[in-house]
Amino acid sequence: MMKKLVTLCVLMTSVYVLSACNTFHGFGKDVEHVGEKIQGK
């Protein structure tokens, strides 16, 4: 029972971390796009 609980916690944490990386990656692209518009590229 304890092993299943630990495995579930690890999986949930992994999903959270991976989704956060995608969010930050997308945010970085948005900021880059705005910067290019400001520079007139």
UniProtKB/TrEMBL annotation:
The keyword Membrane applies. Residues 1-19 form the signal peptide. PROSITE patterns: PROKAR_LIPOPROTEIN. Keywords: Cell membrane, Lipoprotein, Membrane, Palmitate, Signal. It comes from the Bacteria. GO terms for biological process: response to toxic substance. One of its GO terms (cellular component) is membrane. Belongs to the EcnA/EcnB lipoprotein family. This is Entericidin EcnA/B family protein. It comes from Collimonas arenae. The lineage of its organism: Bacteria, Pseudomonadati, Pseudomonadota, Betaproteobacteria, Burkholderiales.
